[in-house]
Specification:
By secondary structure, the protein is of the alpha/beta class. It has 2 domains: about 5-110 and about 295-324, Medium-chain alcohol dehydrogenases, catalytic domain (Quinone Oxidoreductase, Chain A, domain 1, Alpha-Beta Complex); about 125-265, 3-Layer(aba) Sandwich (Rossmann fold). It has helices spanning about 40-50, 115-135, 150-165, 180-185, 195-205, 220-230, 265-270, 270-285, 305-310, and strands at about 5, 15-20, 30-40, 65-70, 85-90, 100, 105-110, 145, 165-170, 190, 210-215, 230-235, 260, 295-300, 320-324. Strands 3, 4, 5, 6, 7, 14 and 15 form a 7-stranded mixed beta sheet that branches. Strands 10-9-8-11-12-13 form a 6-stranded parallel beta sheet, sandwiched between helices. Strands 1-2 form a two-stranded antiparallel sheet.
């Protein structure tokens, strides 16, 4: 019998238990998948902690994975047994050795990209793709602020925005991440614990501010990010690693005619055709070395609790995955 990580009660990482689970045969329109690698994301941490109450408990967390198709349900025509596929799926269930999955969520992989790289970059890379092309279409010459510039999504945002011709300002939490952020395409790097990042951004941009700020930190940086915006600038708050953003008056956006979004990659890429096109753009960027995934920390599936501790560590660099 295959095993999976089961969360019975929200709380600390130690609540993630490795247990045998039954995996049913695929229904029409579904596939059965044997995982080779699973991505670990802050979304998983929020679910485990109880900040997001979107997983029915007991349940199997995880929203992205890579594996091999082992069985097809009826009406599945675009995939074959033995195909390598990757997916993002808001229905959870990725922290498992095997699972069933809606076939439309599966993205067939070519032989050119390693499973570990895909597991480390699919959701993060699709998030970056949506942020720089749809939420705010980055243009040559734009000033772009990226918080957590050495992190999983942040590092990809910096590289993609730099490739598009933007001037990238990154913030990091420690000295040893400065060089990493520079390697990822940042023209300027701010250590936000040692410096007032709002004042530094204003200084770097000659008082103009940035056209877009990408903020996954949340509570600790949100209002500073707003202050960094140029007139008609946009703030994309796509995460809350430091905690949820407190309520504020929407009229605060009026003075500089700023805009704010709280984007979800699952909504932007809800249609299969759009998700497939975004994935193709991501794979091309990886193959052309426009994007370098950086360090990947790997943990066995049974050690998911350790992987979550790594995700929550302030010293973490790059991405975290589970291997099967």
């Amino acid at each position: 019998m295959p095993s999976a990580i089961v969360l019975h009660q929200a709380g600390p990482a130690e609540n993630l238990k490795f247990e045998p689970v039954a995996v049913r045969a695929p229904l029409p329109g579904e596939i059965r998948l044997r995982h080779t690698a699973v991505g670990v994301n802050f979304h998983d941490v929020y679910v485990r902690s109880g900040l997001y109450k979107t997983l029915a408990l007991p349940g199997i967390p995880g929203i992205e994975g890579v594996g091999v198709v082992t069985e097809l349900g009826n009406e599945v025509e675009h995939l074959n047994v033995g195909d390598r596929v990757a997916y993002i799926h808001v229905g959870y269930g990725a922290y498992s050795e095997e699972r069933t999955l809606p076939a439309e969520a599966a993205i067939r992989l070519s032989a050119g990209i390693d499973d570990h790289i895909i597991a480390a970059t699919l959701l993060k890379g699709l998030t970056a793709q949506v942020l720089v092309h749809e939420v705010y279409a980055v243009k040559p010459g734009d000033w772009v602020l990226v918080h957590a510039a050495a992190g999983g999504v942040g590092s990809l945002l910096c590289q993609w925005a730099s490739h598009l011709g933007a001037h990238v300002i990154g913030t990091v939490g420690s000295l040893h991440k400065v060089e990493l952020a520079q390697r990822y395409g940042c023209n300027h790097v701010i250590q936000y614990r040692q410096e007032d990042f709002v004042a530094r951004v204003k200084d770097i941009t000659n008082g103009e501010g940035v056209q877009v700020a990408y903020d996954a930190v949340g509570k600790d940086t949100f209002f500073g990010s707003l202050a960094c915006l140029a007139p008609c600038g946009h703030l994309a708050n796509y995460g809350q690693a430091s905690g949820p953003v407190p309520p504020f008056e929407v009229s605060a956006l009026f003075a500089k005619s700023n805009s704010l979004s709280r984007p979800s990659v699952f909504q932007h890429l809800k249609k299969v055709e759009k998700r497939q096109a975004a994935a193709a753009a991501l794979f091309e960027a990886l193959n052309d070395h426009v994007l370098q995934p950086g360090h990947i920390a790997t943990f066995g599936l049974a050690n998911a609790a350790q992987a979550h501790h790594e995700m929550e560590s302030r010293s973490r660099q790059g991405s975290v995955i589970l291997t099967i």
